[in-house]
């Protein structure tokens, strides 16, 4: 019975996880420190042993097959546990005393990042953090200057010489106060908002540009009557009936159902977010350990309301 089990080791599992994470043989091979043909061979060996194709290759990107999507969570868990246990053995407390410098979109730092910090520091209290939050342009500049270990920013707008990973697509949703006439609709169209007061981010926000360009393509302009650069203020303004807002699903407070209503748009408006760092500044063990905590929380948050 034992002989029928596929002989898959850490090298194969890590290659699968890295390729899924970067969506590119070139980027994944660079991250792993091996050649692209070498990575191809490792993945092909794993697929042969498993008896299933895990990836679909195209000229521009690599995507998971249904079998790959089913196998990936197991591979991620095994790789994460092996690395975690190795860290615990190598150092008494798992990681050295250090500080991580992170730049982050405000929408992510509002809800998801605090949850990740709390969970991570329970296991690694010796790691300190400095979080620099701002709009996408600010995040890009912090990465470009090398001021941070890594950043969570916009995947579609990033500086050169930057490695992107863990790219996720996030849907935007409309939020408004309870009792608002829009609450009678299960799904909203952007045109439903064209006569309403909109609470928005500043004009240099990539998110605002994305939303306003979507409206212009449909032949109208949104009324951004109230502008703020803080999500806590934005949700307070919505709660106090100053207007409605369009926000990333990851920014929704965990208790938003207590005082706000959220609805998805049709057609959907999406943005891509990612982890990014300078190509010449690879992630160290502490950054990798923290991202293993952050990624699943971020993936859960971008799913949004149902």
Keywords:
single chain, 306 residues, alpha/beta, Arc Repressor Mutant, subunit A, 3 domains, two-stranded antiparallel ribbon, 10 helices, 12 strands
CATH superfamily of the largest domain: Periplasmic binding protein-like II
Query: Tell me, what's the shape?
Result: globular
For this structure, the CATH topology of the largest domain is: D-Maltodextrin-Binding Protein, domain 2
Mean pLDDT: 87
Second-tier CATH architecture of the largest domain:
3-Layer(aba) Sandwich
Helical fraction: 40-55%
| Strand residues, percent | 15-25%
User: How many separate structural domains?
Assistant: 3
Q: Structural class of the secondary elements? A: alpha/beta
Q: How is the quaternary structure best described?
A: single chain
Q: Please summarize the sheet with the most strands.
A: 8 strands, mixed
Question: Explain this structure to me?
Answer:
The chain is α/β, with parallel strands linked by helices. It has 3 domains: about 1-90, Arc Repressor Mutant, subunit A; about 95-170 and about 270-300, D-Maltodextrin-Binding Protein, domain 2 (3-Layer(aba) Sandwich); about 170-270, D-Maltodextrin-Binding Protein, domain 2. It contains 10 helices and 12 strands. It has helices at about 10-20, 25-30, 35-50, 65-90, 105-110, 110-125, 135-145, 205-215, 230-240, 285-300; strands at about 55, 60-65, 100-105, 125-135, 150-155, 160-175, 185-190, 195-200, 225, 245-250, 260-265, 270-280. The strands form 3 sheets. Strands 3, 4, 5, 6, 7, 10, 11 and 12 form an 8-stranded mixed beta sheet that branches.
């Amino acid at each position: 019975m034992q002989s029928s089990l596929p002989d898959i080791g850490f090298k194969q599992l890590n290659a699968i996880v890295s390729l899924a994470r970067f969506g590119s043989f070139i980027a994944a091979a660079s991250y792993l420190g091996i050649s692209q043909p070498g990575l191809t061979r490792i993945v092909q060996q794993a697929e042969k042993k498993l008896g299933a194709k895990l990836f679909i290759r195209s000229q521009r990107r690599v995507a998971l097959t249904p079998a790959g999507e089913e196998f990936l969570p197991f591979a991620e868990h095994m790789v994460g546990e092996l690395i975690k246990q190795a860290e615990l053995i190598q150092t008494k407390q798992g990681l050295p005393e250090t500080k991580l410098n992170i730049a982050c979109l405000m929408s992510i730092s509002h809800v998801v990042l605090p949850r990740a910090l709390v969970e991570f520091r329970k296991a690694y209290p010796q790691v300190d953090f400095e979080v620099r939050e701002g709009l996408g342009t600010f995040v890009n500049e912090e990465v470009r200057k090398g001021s941070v270990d890594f950043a969570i920013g916009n995947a579609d707008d990033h500086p050169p010489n930057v490695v992107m990973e863990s790219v996720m697509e996030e849907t935007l949703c409309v939020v408004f106060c309870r009792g608002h006439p829009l609450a009678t609709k299960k799904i909203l169209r952007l045109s439903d908002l064209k006569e309403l007061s909109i609470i928005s981010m500043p004009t240099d926000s990539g998110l605002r540009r994305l939303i306003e360009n979507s409206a212009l393509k449909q032949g109208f302009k949104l009324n951004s009557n109230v502008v703020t650069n803080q999500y806590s203020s934005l949700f307070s303004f919505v709660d106090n009936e100053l207007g409605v807002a369009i926000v990333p699903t990851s920014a929704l407070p965990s208790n938003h159902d207590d005082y706000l209503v959220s609805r998805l748009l049709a057609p959907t408006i999406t943005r891509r977010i990612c982890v990014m760092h300078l190509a010449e500044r690879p992630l160290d063990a502490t950054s990798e350990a923290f991202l293993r905590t952050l990624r699943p929380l971020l993936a859960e948050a971008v799913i949004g309301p149902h």
